[in-house]
Amino acid sequence: MHNPTSTLPATAARQSFSKKLLKWGGIVFLTLVLLAGLLVSAFYWTALRTEQPVGFQAVRAVDANGKPFGLGIWYPTTAATSASWTGSFLMQVATNGPIAGTSLPLVVISHGTGGGIPSHADLAMALAAAGYVVAAPMHSDNYLDTSSVGTPAYFTGRSQQLRSTIDFMLSQWPGHAQVDANRVGAYGFSIGAFTVLTAAGAKPDLRGLAKYCTDHSEFACDMLRQSNSFLLGTDLPAGFDHFAQDQRIKAIVVAAPGLGFTFSGKDALANVNAPLQLWQGDKDINVPDATNAKVIRDALADRVEFHSVPNAAHLSFLVPCGVLKMLPVCTDPAGFDRQQFHDTMNPLVVAFFTKQLAQP
């Protein structure tokens, strides 16, 4: 005959196990909540901030061919700010806040290959806090899609897109009446530096790229080979090396300029009349100084304000990473403090634009 009491020990054991499971489950849950809270707090306390309030808008513009592209815009405001997520870090900004001021100077920012609108967000915020309107286009070779690398869109298309950005900011942006069309500057990093220089009047020798890349080992050449660029062939399309100068650009800052070797021709930089501030990391193996930044320095001589950055690599010019320092784009040489460097560089860039774009 079955004895009901014989099941009591098993039942008690199951109940005890369930209690322990609930207890440990609760501990694990609370631990995860605590860790999530700490992570959120870390993101918040490392958010990009400025002493003066900065507004931010994400909008869409169109290029000369009617193709839309994203545009990030920072500007001075009087509105209260809050933390805004950019995808990998937070900015303390007033999203879509009102624009403060009149006759504001404009700076456009051209990111590097695989970058995007937030690539130089800390510099953009520093400029906006100092009274600038800053516009950063999402070029067609961005972190979401690099398929345009090596195509005409990677060269003349970028330059045209920068011009379209200025067009939009001076005529279509809702706050365009508060922007001074006579005070326009441009900042470019890596291929973005090439973009800014060509928009400012530089004429690169793209026809000689195939031979150069045969004779030299350069990161840019590796990228062109990987993308099967038309430039490494013999069938070159008409107009592929036609760059229209934008006379509205009155001052330029370039960092770690990519494809600098294409400006080695005698008259390649002859039409660049805007004053130029040039930055180069002395540990940059992607864009070595000797074949890139030095070419520009030698051609423009005393017209260049040059800054060599000790122990800086190519990616050291990108926005400081906050808590996500494990990401590949956050890698710097041992002992290099990216945040400390940007705390030094950004005020010098602001001061340069302020001097060169001063109202008459």
Automatic annotation (TrEMBL):
Keywords: Hydrolase, Lipid degradation, Lipid metabolism, Membrane, Transmembrane, Transmembrane helix. The chain crosses the membrane at residues 21-45. The keyword ATP-binding does not apply. It holds the Pfam family PAF-AH_p_II. InterPro entries: AB_hydrolase_fold, UCP031982_abhydr. It comes from the Bacteria. GO terms for molecular function: hydrolase activity. This is Alpha/beta hydrolase family protein. It comes from Rheinheimera tilapiae.
